[in-house]
Amino acid sequence: MQRLLVVEDDNSVRMTIVTALECEGFDVDAVGSTREAISRLEGSQYPIVISDIYLDERTGLDVLNAARKGNPKCQVILMTGRGTMETVMAATRGGAFDYLAKPFDMDQMFDVIRRAQATFEGEEEKEDVVEDLPTSEMIGSSAPMIEIYKNLSLSAPTDATVLIEGETGTGKELIARMIHNNSRRSEKPFVAVDCGAIAPTLLESELFGVVKGAFTGADRDRVGVFESANTGTVFLDEIGETDLSFQLTLLRFLQQREIRPVGASRSKVIDVRVVLATNRDMQKMVDEKKFREDLWYRINVIRIQLPPLRERHGDVPLLAHTFLNRYNDRYNMSGRLTESGMKTLETYAWPGNVRQLQHMMERMTILAPQGRIDEAAVREAIVAMEPRDNGSDSLADTEADQIRRVLAATNGNKSHAAKILGIERKTLYRKLERMGLA
Ligand SMILES: Nc1ncnc2c1ncn2[C@@H]1O[C@H](COP(=O)(O)OP(=O)(O)OP(=O)(O)O)[C@@H](O)[C@H]1O
Ligand SMILES: [Mg+2]
Known about the structure:
Layout: E1 3-7, H1 11-23, E2 27-31, H2 34-43, E3 48-52, H3 60-70, E4 75-80, H4 85-93, E5 98-101, H5 106-118, H6 143-155, E6 162-165, H7 172-181, E7 190-194, H8 200-208, H9 225-228, E8 233-237, H10 244-256, E9 258-259, E10 268-269, E11 273-278, H11 282-287, H12 293-299, E12 302-305, H13 316-331, E13 336-337, H14 339-347, H15 353-367, E14 372-373, H16 375-385, H17 399-409, H18 414-421, H19 425-434
Helix pairs in contact: 2-3, 4-17, 13-15, 14-16, 15-16, 17-18, 18-19
Bound molecules: adenosine-5'-triphosphate (ATP) and magnesium ion.
């Protein structure tokens, strides 16, 4: 029989709860003040405590702290009819298991208690441990990554143009920065340009600059990226998204190392190293005449091909633990990976590569019940974070609880919270409204 402590100052509410719990076979102790509650908690241990928040001169948060101090595994369920964002956040930070908004029906309460009980199961599962986590920025010691480091250590110190290829989220930008940081230009500017995000007609003036009056809208002289990054490195991301006319301009620049701002009559010599990246199949683009062959030969000198994460599963444990540590620190959490959790991570296909793993670890560090990232937690996160076409709803039935935890961890930052939860911001607002917390 499970023991339970109920703390509620309203006699009739307390009686109702106690009667319902006793009918379900619980062994219930009930008190009506924080003073009695705290002295009970000092005298004996309860696995589960259900407490009202607004009681007397002290509150349910004091009961929560006393319960967790006496027994860190104690699950405290708080209830109130006057919840605000602030009290909910304080309760969540204090480690409350869940939060019941009054009035609630008894089935809701039983449901929360069952979930609290479930956390006591499976506690014996072993934790996955990794000794000597690397402190480097780039994580990975699989064979293909070692090849990449070799390649990098030779090419980074030179001024050679480097092309980085790889699926989304494999670390192309990270590699580009490492090339810069390990070159003699490391103290000089590094400027990244997402060629796919700039309208083709504007890309040339963005990179090479423009003089006032060159076209409508060019209301003043503008310095281009190549000039502002002079003596440093320019990273041209998504180079496969550019059009043929820009490709010709870029080819000329790579051959002559001179820029002529749009509308200018004279050119200037510029000293920048160019690193490029793409997630396209460039050879195919060349064959289909969507990418200039002459430019392709010019940039295809040193190629770094980043393997997708599914081809280097051996790197998953290092990456997962690195991200786990990062988010435990950032959010002041104590998430830990179990062996089954790690196994599930290792066998997943990772369509979004390292970035997806990183986001998933962020989410699970905050949301995994009792910070235990096991198989169930990983499966839940995979389902929740898989791209959906309707973009509306992916949260499980414990969604209110998840929303509270994520908001507490992100200090109430709703856009960041929505991202971690895998829902749109407006969906989060709607849900908060329904929870009475808008
Ligand atoms: N090997 C790695 N070690 C540690 N962190 C990594 C590694 N690879 C990628 N990351 C992290 O994953 C995230 C995505 O990496 P990055 O932005 O470099 O990917 P990308 O290949 O440029 O993706 P996209 O094509 O979508 O732009 C970043 O936060 C990056 O720091
Ligand atoms: Mg990128």
